[in-house]
Amino acid sequence: MFRRRWSVIVTGLLILCLIIPACSPSSMQETAKVRIGEVTRSVFYAPQYAAITKGYFQEQGLDVELTTTPGGDKTMTALLSGGIDIALVGSETSIYVQQQGSGDPVVNFAQMTQTDGTFLVSRNKVEGPFDWSSLKGTTFLGQRKGGMPQMAGEFALRKNGIDPHKDLNLIQNIDYANIATAFASGTGEYVQLYEPTATVFEQEGKGYVIASFGVESGKLPYTVFMAKKSFIDKNGVTIEKFTNALQKAQNWVQTASIEEIADSIASYFPDTKKEVIMGSVQRYRDQGSFATDGIVDEAEWNNLLDIMQGAGELQQRADYKTLVNNEFAQKAKESVK
Known about the structure:
alpha/beta; D-Maltodextrin-Binding Protein, domain 2; five-stranded mixed β-sheet; 16 helices; about 15% strand; globular; signal; ABC transporter substrate-binding protein
């Protein structure tokens, strides 16, 4: 009888030993699903893809669902309608929402890129130093009116003595997804392109990168993770975890080799050669496009407002404290290594 009782006790203890680890805080951590809508698929967003593939979101207990919603208007519509929780898009979209009188502002909480990501591509090779004045009188295939690429492009052109609406034959009526195809088909002498398309065009002899709009327009909150204020207020813990994962990816992208970064994001560009991805990452990192942390600096915010004002897209200066929340990014910068 004693042996039988002792056997039962031992068996019970063994079962408890198996149960207790399974019930530890780390294993009981609830997984929160987060739906992200990115404005486009681009090597420009390498830290985001790295955060997913390297498991940084998963480490924070987040199940991330990523959808590409082409264009700032579509991305913001998805966010406002509840189709996504977090948008990766230009900060100008949050300002447009505010200008329309929204009672639930869209708040920028983690910056990912800090320069424009487009390049000036010429159909023909340019011998010697590029002279911006050579653009006068040419046909320029630009971006959508009111979008950040076009506004930053116009800012850079004006900075270099070019009035885009007087000195150029400016084409803006082609959908974003078809701009590269239109140029490759013979439309325009110059075009504004993101990577990796710019590098692909160079390798195929379809165009040549002659200037960077990112360098010319300076630092600004170009692509930022944002959410409705109501969502942030209700899901502060999730936003904190999200920003921590992003910060870890931002740290890694600054120190990893270009090949390592390319390998980590290659699955998001299945039709792009590895060397093209590497060249694109190298170009963006060299010019400081990847933000080193999620903090949206006020000086960068003011540069954005200046650019929007110059493009005639700003009704009034948007309040930094209303549309920017650096609380989560500041904590992540201090704690995530």
